[in-house]
Amino acid sequence: MARASTGSSSSALVSKLLISSLLLGCYCLVSEAQTTPPLVKGLSWTFYKTSCPKLENIIRNRLKKVFKKDIGQAAGLLRLHFHDCFVQGCDGSVLLDGSASGPSEKDAPPNLSLRAEAFRIINDLRARVHKECGRVVSCADITAIAARDSVFLSGGPNYRVPLGRRDGLSFATREATLANLPAPSSNTSALLTSLATKNLDATDVVALSGGHTIGIGHCTSFTSRLYPSQDSTMNKYFASQLKLTCPTATTDNTTNLDIRTPNVFDNKYYVDLMNRQGLFTSDQDLYTDKRTRPIVTSFAVNQTLFFEKFVYSMLKMGQLSVLTGTQGEIRANCSAPNSATTYLSSIADEEEGTSAAF
Ligand code: HEM
User: Which metal ions or organic cofactors does this protein require, according to UniProt (predicted)?
Assistant: First the structure.
């Protein structure tokens, strides 16, 4: 069982949830009792128990050091897992470099603002893990664990991640990438429609958007809300401050996604939304739309409820179209399929064999 460690005893939690649900008349009682969605066949809570028992310690200890230097990397790693899972499933395909066959997922517009450092961190973790255990752990699993540790080490809930994902052999096209990652200009209707195709409901949409409690966004992701005219759902003072950061629609600056506690994984993102201080249309409209507004409010007043729902939705997201069993492969390098590497080494082997024969 994955358990969100939020510090409350379960009976206190249940009564808190009941009270908040009664007060807010929210949708949320449905799956309150269940903190873990069903596991996809092939994934398990103990997948590397014998083949790589130190896996999670290696990753957590390394990330503690990385975040001590720059906590911003936590946001980069959380977003990387989301972008991996939404396009072609959580198969590490977002990690692949482009090849002669064409540009990779990485090169598609929504992925250009993924942090270059996040890709380096995943490959570094992979090297450390493979050094300890051999090539048994997938890049997709390492990305899922790194996302969890990013949440926890930023102040969010700790939770167990089902493991056993395999790495995909190829990346998605630019078109598929664009079609699967919603734009920040999306309204709630567009988000609900888009995420419903992945079996994610309104509570999942609001909970997952809470990932925006950490990290940054570029001006170009939200200046359509400032120029030529100001979005009426945006707080006026907030807008005037954003205009200082982004004096033109195309300024290459960044700003925090959560103005209250930009580096802490907490529920302040929802408080921002209630104060009309959401950065993207896709954020702010969750409070404007009457279908999602009660969910936003319930998370703003109850961080424990948010953490619980976030974990549940992350576990759903983290199992989207995963490869398991004998599907895919365990990459030796997260940026390239093994065929690219083994082709070169098999030529070397052949040459060695040839010279030995003579
Ligand atoms: C629901 C639809 C979503 C949209 C439209 C969206 C859009 C965006 C955009 C436009 C950025 C900023 C890119 C830039 O300008 O540099 C961003 C950043 C971010 N997103 Fe989302 N996102 C969504 C869902 C999610 C989810 C599900 C998560 C994780 C659970 C997430 C986590 C993040 C994080 C942590 C950042 C900051 C990254 C950094 O600082 O490097 N987002 N998102």
Answer: heme b; Ca(2+)
Regarding the beta carbon of 77 and ligand 1, being less than 6 Å apart is answered: no
77 contacts: CB under 8 Å, gap ≥ 6: 63, 118, 121, 122, 143, 146, 147, 149, 150
Residue in 66, 67, 82, 313 to alter for ligand 1 test, most ligand atoms within 8 A of Cβ: 82
- Residue 216 beta carbon below 6 angstroms from any ligand 1 atom: yes
Q: What is the pLDDT of residue 8?
A: 40
Residues tagged in the binding site annotation for heme b: 212
Does 347 or 208 have the greater pLDDT score? 208
Q: What is the mean pLDDT of residues 21-45?
A: 66
334-172-140-349 Cα dihedral, nearest 10 degrees: -40
Q: Where are the alpha helices (DSSP H) in 25-173?
A: 55-69, 72-86, 116-133, 139-153
27 has pLDDT over 50: no
211 lines ligand 1 (CB under 6 A): yes
Which pLDDT score is estimated for 100? Answer: 75
| 198-232 confidence digits (pLDDT tens) | 999 999 999 999 999 999 999 999 999 999 999 99
pLDDT at 17 over 50: no
The verdict on whether 130 is a catalytic residue reads no
